[in-house]
Amino acid sequence: MNRARASLLLLLSVLTSSCGAAAPSGAPGVAEAVGARTIPESAVTAPVPPTDPMLALDQAARAGAIAETLHGVAVMDPYRSLEDDTPATQAWIEAQTQRTESALSALARPERHARLAALLAVGTITHVSAAGRRVFYQKREAGEEQPSLYVVEDRGAHDAALPAPVARKLLDPTHLPGQDAVAKATLDWYYPSPRGTLVALGISVNGDERSTLYVLDVATGALRAERIARTKWSNVAWLNDERGFYYTRYPALGEPDFDATHEDTYFPRVFFHTLGADSAADPRIFSGTEGTDFPTPSVSDDDRWLVVNNFRGWSKSDVHLLDRRAPAPAAGAAPVLRTILAGRDALTSGRIHRGKLYLFTNLDAPKYKLVVAEHLERADDPTTWRVVLPEGASAIESYELVADRLVVQSIDDVRARVRVYGLDGREEPEVALPTRGSVDGLGADTTSARVAYVFSSYFVPPTLFTYDVRRHTTTTLDHVTSDFDPSAYELTQEHVPSADGTPINVYLVHRRGLVRDGHNPVLLTGYGGFNVSLYPGFTRNALYFLERGGVYAVANLRGGAEFGEDWHRAGNLLQKKHVFEDFEAVIRWLSTSQVSNPARIAITGGSNGGLLMGAMLTRCPDAFRAAATYVGLYDMVRYDRFPPAELWVTEYGSAADPEQLRYLLSYSPYHNVRAGTAYPSVLVETADHDSRVFWGHSTKFAAALQEATSSANPIYFYREREVGHGAGTGLSDLVRRYERMYAFIEHELGIE
Question: Are 722 and 609 spatial neighbours (Cβ–Cβ below 8 Å)?
Answer without folding.
Answer: no
